[in-house]
Amino acid sequence: MKKFNILIFLCFTSLCSSQSKNEKEERIPISEFPEIAQSYFNTISHDVKYLKFYKETDGDKLSFEAKFKIKKLYYSVEFDTLGKLEDIEIVIKKKYIPKNTLKEILKYFDTNFRKSRFLKIQKQYVNYTKKSDKQFIQHIVDNPNDKHTHFEIIAEIKTKQKHELREFIFDKNGIFKTSRIVTSSSYEHALY
Question: 3-state SS string over the chain?
Fold first, then answer.
């Protein structure tokens, strides 16, 4: 029986650790960025305050990210290893979440946690259109208030048992989708 309990504990621990965000980010030169995606930023570069490229690892997953600022908005554009666009995120303030959507999100936090504090909110765009990745990036830069697909929120939460930093994903209507723990090693870079 004791061996069985240890086995269950190990399986549970393994499952919990796989649901945490333990990203490591390393700044890289553009020459190490996926070749196909390198040219995507040529047309917007004259408007950019800064443009930096990163390699990001999260357990087994490797991705690449371009970060930049245009017209007071902070963008993060993520690609897979082949240069295929995964998503675009724009940092926003809570007041820019539509009222009904915010109401749903706050209801989720009030129902599930004793306390919560939002540290970072992003609108997330995934290209479900027929536009190429380059066209979609340019479209979002030109139309940052266009329809997005999700909200990503990094929040400090408190329950009776614990105090954690978590990343939450909500759909565009404020319906909860997923969450995962953000480890302290990925805390700073997660906050941009």
Answer: CHHHHHHHHHHHHHHHHHCEECEEEEEECHHHCCHHHHHHHCCCHHHCCCEEEEEEEECCEEEEEEEEEECCEEEEEEECCCCCEEEEEEEECHHHCCHHHHHHHHHHHHHHCCEEEEEEEEEEECCCCCCCHHHHHHHHHHCCCCCCCEEEEEEEEECCCCEEEEEEEEECCCCEEEEEEECHHHHHHHCC
Per-residue confidence (pLDDT) for residue 190, from 0 to 100: 47
pLDDT tens digit string along 137-162?
A: 999 999 998 888 899 999 999 988 88
Q: Which CATH number fits domain 2-190: 2.120.10, 3.30.2010, 3.10.450, 3.40.50?
A: 3.10.450
Indicate the pTM of the whole model: 0.82
